[in-house]
Amino acid sequence: MVKKHLQKTGKVADFLSRYEKTRYAPLLRAKWLDYLAKHGRWKEYAKYYQGGENAARECHYLWALHETGDKQKALGEAQRLWLTGVSQPQACDALFAEFMQSPMFGSDLIWQRFELAIDQENWPLVEYLRRLLDKTAQKTADFWLQVYKNPYLAKDSGLWVSNDAMTGRIFAEGVARLALSDVGMALQLWDGRKQYLSLDDKVIDKVDKKLAFVLFSHRDHRAYQRLQQVRMPDDKVREAKIRAALLEQNWQHVNEALISLPWAVQQEPAWQYWRGRALTMMGRVQEAQTIYQKLSDDRSFYGFLAADKLGSGYTIGDKPVLVADGQFEALLKQPGFRAIEEWRLLGRDLEARRQWWFAIESLDKERLMIAAKLAQQWQWDQVAIMTLVKAGYWDDVALRFPLRYVDDVRRNATRQNLDPAIILGLMRQESMLDSKALSAVGAKGLMQMMPATAEQVANKLDENWLGDQQLFMPAVNIRYGSYYFAELLQRFDGHAALAIAAYNAGPNRVAKWLPVNGHVPADIWIETIPYKETRKYVTSVLSYAIIYQHRLQTNGLKLKNMLAELSGN
């Protein structure tokens, strides 16, 4: 095997040239580059490095340039790798040592990285950077760390008498940290003192954004006013202003915030829907109806909401990918796809899927769509869906929303008094119907059940809990997931949006997001969920449920019936 002869440049280079389009070429190249670096063969390293590697190999490449005569480029690129809050690998040590001895390096770069490391809470790196400073600067660094660890020091007026930029930055850091535990005090201190300190616009905006986002997370109506103070708003701030205005239910502010978006962003379904809502509430009903009419053709949460506003049916827009005779066969003749079939014949499903992602990398849109249909034919639902996403095609509804495990879904829907389309919507969002799905935090199977939650459900159902692996059995996973969702639905008085949010973020969090007083329309509540992930999750599951209703050929679900207004105590 070539990987046992890494010392032979000709042999390795020949393999890489002959088999460059296989999955094994980049794997061999990575091993070879590591070998060349270990043995200091920098000329060959510089010649055969191709980029797109990890930080260690990039550092080795820059060191190879340094050692082969291109020192200026190497040190110039070193600054980019230096300015990060994460610890870089040992492979960067030699490069950084040279960089730190060069005229390009100075204390300003130490301070920049010091702040980045604090933001990442990378304390070993913080301490390393502190030691690079002179003794006077170390005292300033110690003060910065003191304020970071005890942000209530921002209240001590005697600490903030100096009118230099560093004092201003440390005060700003303290206020930003304090906002996490006492946003009221942070607001008072910031507004009372910032004008007396040396602060540039970038630092002021950073703190104002932090304060605004914390206020928004607390569903505090002062968020909009704080966002208005940001001098250099980015897209994140502009969109946050819309949601903050929705918290206020101030439709004039909503409309103004929408208009401030770039024109292309304004055309997105979400913002078209809220434009229609704002216009309606401002009395411009005909303009709103025109927007809803166009939006109702969109197969999305917001398109379905628009259809409900019009009292019309939902548009599903199913346009399956058509595969002509011979297109599958042409694809399967390619070497990469022949390798996939060989792995499948050997029963090596994981290797087959790894080969799949490599094989489709070079396909154009049309062939990606054909590949997606091939994966669908093989009942690789998750692979088919993700391949079609890669092709940028969204209208093959049967492929994107497969009907699997329907008997188990219907059986458990009947037991728990649920609509089967909602169970399928949850499964589609959680796992793309992959029964072997495993998340980074340990959630398992079709409905991504956490083992501890599943064990509790098993006990309630008086079933023996035989361990986590049960959750990879579709019948068990659907039974436990459906039971748990029904519990959430009961806890939140049958409100589907709240139960779906709780399935993602946990019921205790959702309880904290409920209105304390007054009335909040459910669409506003969803749009102002503080967590972007949960916000997207709820809108996806609800829209997927509507689509699965179409797939199941039923018609019992309407978004407007699942989105009852929320009332505070």
Top keywords for this entry?
two-stranded antiparallel ribbon, 2 strands, 569 residues, 65% helix, 34 helices, single chain, mainly alpha
Explain this structure to me?
The protein is mainly alpha-helical. Helix content is 65%, strand content 1%. It is built from 34 helices and two strands. It has helices at 9-18, 24-38, 42-48, 55-67, 71-82, 93-100, 107-119, 123-132, 135-149, 165-181, 183-193, 201-217, 223-228, 235-248, 251-259, 263-266, 269-281, 285-295, 301-310, 327-332, 335-345, 349-359, 365-377, 381-391, 397-400, 406-416, 420-431, 451-460, 474-491, 496-505, 507-513, 522-527, 532-552, 559-562; strands at 519-520, 566-567. A two-stranded antiparallel sheet has the order 1-2. α23 runs antiparallel to α24 (381-391).
List strands and helices in order, with pairings.
Layout (H helix, E strand, L loop, with lengths): L8 H10 L5 H15 L3 H7 L6 H13 L3 H12 L10 H8 L6 H13 L3 H10 L2 H15 L15 H17 L1 H11 L7 H17 L5 H6 L6 H14 L2 H9 L3 H4 L2 H13 L3 H11 L5 H10 L16 H6 L2 H11 L3 H11 L5 H13 L3 H11 L5 H4 L5 H11 L3 H12 L19 H10 L13 H18 L4 H10 L1 H7 L5 E2 L1 H6 L4 H21 L6 H4 L3 E2 L2
Antiparallel strand pairs: 1-2
Helix pairs in contact: 2-3, 3-4, 4-5, 5-6, 7-8, 9-10, 10-11, 10-12, 14-15, 15-17, 17-18, 17-19, 18-19, 21-22, 23-24, 26-29, 27-33, 28-29, 29-30, 30-31, 30-33
